[in-house]
Design a protein that fits this description.
Layout: E1 2-5, E2 10-13, H1 25-105, H2 107-112, H3 115-134, E3 137-140, E4 152-160, E5 169-174, E6 176-181, E7 184-189, E8 191-198
Parallel strand pairs: 4-8
Antiparallel strand pairs: 1-2, 3-6, 5-8, 6-7
Helix pairs in contact: 1-3
Length: about 200
């Protein structure tokens, strides 16, 4: 039996064995001290585990962000490759466009040709231009416009009497071509032009 003395009355507890258990004050303090140490160790362990969990979550978020960035870079690179391929393909078609335009621009010779032949050539030229148009490509024909070095390539000059025609495109010797890429316009080939200069 264990007896615990209270100011008002004695309380009696039955123990599990036949021997009486008495807990002294120093033993109680030691027991409380051990419990406090264990609680402190558990709290330290919980803090360390929370830090590890936080670090793992940050590493996971960083790995996810790296993955998403790498995927976006790859998609952007694929889109740029596609545009480069399209521009290269159009560049290869441009000599054909030039040949058709030269053949059709000489009105006198063109009109002398058989009408069925002219219709066939015009049909093929229109098919070619539909292919070029499908890539978002437009011809640059800057005749009469202000010379633009980003769009035009000056390969000669022509004397003009009107001062307003100075530094303007007088004639286009070869059309240029530009392509719409996203929100911007890329020049595939500069227009070869002559510009106006005043007579000395």
């Amino acid at each position: 039996m264990v007896y615990i003395k209270n100011d008002e009355e004695d309380v009696e507890f039955e123990t599990t064995n036949d021997e009486d258990i008495e807990i002294s004050e120093p033993e109680l303090e030691e027991l409380e001290g051990n419990t406090g140490d264990k609680l402190k160790q558990l709290r330290t362990k919980i803090t360390r585990l929370e830090e590890e969990k936080k670090q793992i979550m940050e590493d996971g978020q960083r790995a996810r962000a790296d993955f998403l960035n790498a995927r976006k870079r790859l998609e952007d690179e694929r889109a740029r490759d596609k545009v480069r391929f399209q521009m290269k393909h159009v560049e290869e078609l441009l000599p054909l466009c030039d040949s058709f335009q030269m053949a059709m621009s000489n009105k006198e010779t063109w009109e002398k040709a058989d009408e069925n032949w002219r219709n066939g050539v015009s049909g093929i030229y229109n098919q070619l231009m539909r292919i070029v148009d499908s890539y978002g490509v437009k011809a640059i024909d800057p005749a009469g416009e202000e010379f633009d070095p980003y769009r035009d390539e000056a390969i000669g000059t022509e004397v003009v009497e009107d001062e307003k025609m100075v530094d303007k495109v007088i004639s286009v010797l070869q059309r240029g071509y530009e392509m719409k890429v996203g929100d911007s316009i890329e020049v595939i080939r500069h227009a070869k032009v002559t510009t106006g200069v005043l007579k000395n």
